[in-house]
Amino acid sequence: MSTHLMNTYAPAPVAFVRGEGAWLWDEDGKRYLDAISGLGVCALGHAHPAIADVISKQASTLIHTGNLFRIPWQEKLAEKLAGITQTE
Known about the structure:
Elements: E1 16-20, E2 23-26, E3 31-33, H1 49-59, H2 72-85
Antiparallel strand pairs: 1-2, 2-3
């Protein structure tokens, strides 16, 4: 463990080094089912080629601006999700 990281909470004694779909692997090659999904940030799984590609394209354009400003892609996604989930 690093002495240079904030000790916000006690991490489990495992270090994941890669992920694929719903699975994670530790430094020793042991496989785990990721039932926590990175506390919500990895709900789509790990290392999906299409998601990695779109993240790479976005990262070459703009990483993050925060919700203090308009985010056109966020607005488009919200409209699409609302359209899919509306029951009326």
